[in-house]
Amino acid sequence: MKSDYEKPMAIVSKYGNNRDSLISILQDIQSECRYLPEDALRVVASQLGLPLIQVYGVATFFKAFSLEPRGEHEVRVCLGTACHVRGAPIVLDEIKRHLGVNPGETTDDMRFSLETVNCLGACALGPIVVINDKYFGQTSPGKLEKILRSYE
Amino acid sequence: MVEIVIDGIKTKAVEGTTVLEAAAEIGIVIPTLCHHPGLTPYGACRVCLVEVIKENGSSLEASCILPVEQGQIILTNSEKVKKARKLIVELLLASCPNSKTLQDMASNMGINKIRFKIKDRGCILCGLCVRYCKEQMQSGGIGFIGRGISRKVSTAFDVTPEECRNCGGCEWICPVCERACTAGNLLDGICGGCQNLAPVETCPICTGCSESVGMQGHKVY
Amino acid sequence: MRRSTKKLQSVAELEQLRSRILKRLKKPCVSVCGGTGCHAYGCSEVAASIKKEIKRQGLTRQADFKVTGCHGFCEHGPLVVIYPQKIFYQRVSPKDAPEIISETLLRHNIIKRLLYVDSVSGEKVNFEDDVPFYKKQQRLILGNNGLIDPTDIEDYLALGGYSAMSKVLFNMQPTEVIEEIRKSGLRGRGGGGFPAARKWETCRNAPSPDGIRYVICNADEGDPGAYMDRSLLEGNPHSVIEGMIIGAYAIGAHYGYVYVRYEYPLAVRNLSLALEQARAYGLLGENILGSGFSFDIKISRGGGAFVCGESTALMASIEGKIGEPRPKHIHTAVSGLYGKPTNLNNVETWANVPLIINKGASWYSQIGTEGSKGTKIFSLVGKINNTGLVEVPMGITLREVIYDIGGGIPNGKRFKAVQTGGPSGGCVPESLLDLPVDFDRLTAVGSMMGSGGMIVMDENTCLVDIARYFTKFLTEESCGKCTPCRDGLDNMLDILTDITEGKGKESDIELLEELGSVLKEASLCALGGTAVNPVLSTITYFRDEYRTHIEEKRCPAGVCKALITITIDEEKCTGCQVCARKCPQEAISGKKKELHKIDHNKCIKCRLCQDVCKFEAVVAS
Predict the structure, then answer these.
(1) Which pLDDT score is estimated for A119?
(2) φ and ψ at A73, to 5 degrees?
(3) ipTM
(4) How far is C514 from chain A (nearest CA, A)?
């Protein structure tokens, strides 16, 4: 599809075809498409005159990028030290059990993607779970079912 | 020229050269893994560490990338160096027990036990193949992907890259797949030293790069 | 804030604008904390209702209203402070808005139920400065957050912003600036604690054939549990910008970068806005204030990699490459970004610079200890009553921070350890609580100051689990280039995991110590080099806990899943059957009003039962 190439090409041009802006370019593509499609990476490599493996290497090095499409709802569990000390691992275990996926994975029905993050800066409310942009503070295993159900 | 002292021997070295090269000039061979004289130094394997004596203490540095400096005092085989080197080879062996290069190094250093879980990754991430492809072949078809323990050498999207010219250099320069250990039974990861070469099952980045090889495995020369 | 501005072209014009702003400022100001912590509490609804109420009561001309950056006392958000008296309201909800405006703003009556209650005396506190949390702090840097709307540069100007920069650009030589910073004793606040002036001087003196030098602000704040830099960037971005301009002038740099981690979109947004406004007012960019000095700043975003907080990895990332550190035989101050002399400092370090220039090095150097001058911002979190951001003079003891400011441990539990310095730091036990907060003193006991995370732990925290937590974090963040860090940490994690699962062996502690000491010396960068601190410090101070896990296969703190059993306390159970219904494995049996029992073969230790039991009858041991 023509539009598959247009978007990434436009983004690379926006950064002046500058190789240094590779990470920013990939970030923009990631927020547009919710992941980094293979074709987009090929376009970026070719337009910037970089070996494809170099672009692929950057795409796989940084946690911000995903080569697989992400789910409709992004569930992020904070595993910062403060949240850890307040019981975040038990909360994470319960979410894993409930959704049936591990961090970094998406449910088969593409509804939920699970990620862990290291500190959201809301430590007073730990353990914290963020779904899309909504913060759920002081979570515990018992509260999770209700929270997740509200997104179904 | 700068004046440095290596293992108590005073010597002069050309400015711009490395401690590894300066040591070699006076016959001191420092073991290396990720280093090759024809490629840019990388400093990743940490086997070539030497102890640099400073005013208040000392530090371990990779000699393959350490530039010579006036007045440097270097120890290539001190207790600190030996301890670090031994542990590093032991760590590498645990992730690559079938490499004859590593097994030879281990028997030279007196390593007779691997205390770590053996997780055969078939690669020591020395990057020689990557640098060979990029610098010697001016190609850059393979590279590192991922990070940490998931870091590996690969091609983009696991497909043979357009740039690949089937030179076989990546396989030739590799300290693991080129010289594999035959010992059928490694005892806790250690083979005890042997002279045999043997076919390797699969090379992790093998994309049929060499005509003589094919996708599934390759013979060693 | 759209005000049509002409670019200011001299100090005189800046000062004229400043006095106009001050005249325009009305007296009472309602300041609502808009920091991320308060966002999680719903402060945007509180702010919206207060704004609406001020309008509804026709007071838009008589009172100022601001949504500001973090006020620090995150535990008690949403926070609303009314200036000039600084009446302090906490845990405010949107429906309190009408009363706040009509009672406090109009009639100067204090609403008792919104006041903070002193946990020791039981008394209510009216004013912010009297709240015990704030009393022992010295909020030189963070204190201004309450009066600044980060989207309006004029708030910063009202507080004297950019006067330090004017002083430097027109009245000081670059070498004089460096000398002043040297006299102040400012040390880097990012973790390394390196003397700032020395780095600036090296960078200034490093040869550069084309004259290009760079200054960088490291806002990658990767330590989990630390959010000081974020709050500074979100709440008072101009303090950082001003600091960078002063530093650039001293060093001779005309280009600067702020490298912000990808997880901080609000910080990026507020910083971008601040940069735009600074340029519009002539305070950044070409020919600043007509001084002849030009300097501009670009934002570079991280991609989610802790290792990019390391200076060489950070610079590689700015260059569009993966964050692989390089050895620093040649320091970045001599050859850094694009091979040019580069000076990199942390957010908080830069924010201290205008303060030092304005108040003078002699004033600044009187705060703190012999080796550590000035204040330090900490994120005080974990098992602590008063979670939040605290700014204290160096030299204050850990005990004072945790008990006098932090209010001690909640639920009457006992203090066990405090972790400083994040994954590069170590745990400090109770016996060392009287240690002063000081770079060298903390390093001497096996920890480090780090960027400022201070995680408090109580008797229910397992230190072996904490060591494992940090090691796991680092294995995921290691770039993977060098053997000791990549493979060494992976094996350390295996050993620690075995210990927490009851599979530890006698030789494990020794092996951890050996791995640790080699990692420290042989790693290519500081990530690997300091990775062992959490493990080694917990072994040093809590060796017995390790032994109990290994020899007795028991976790005294009740944390390690494989080593605990969940049981129901006979005396507390009322037989209500709530837990039995909730249990996903149907492992709880028991008739109504009779003692319930957990079948350990089915129990997966998910703790749902513990969570729903209203009688605290479920115990993990």
Answers:
(1) 77
(2) -115, 130
(3) 0.92
(4) 26
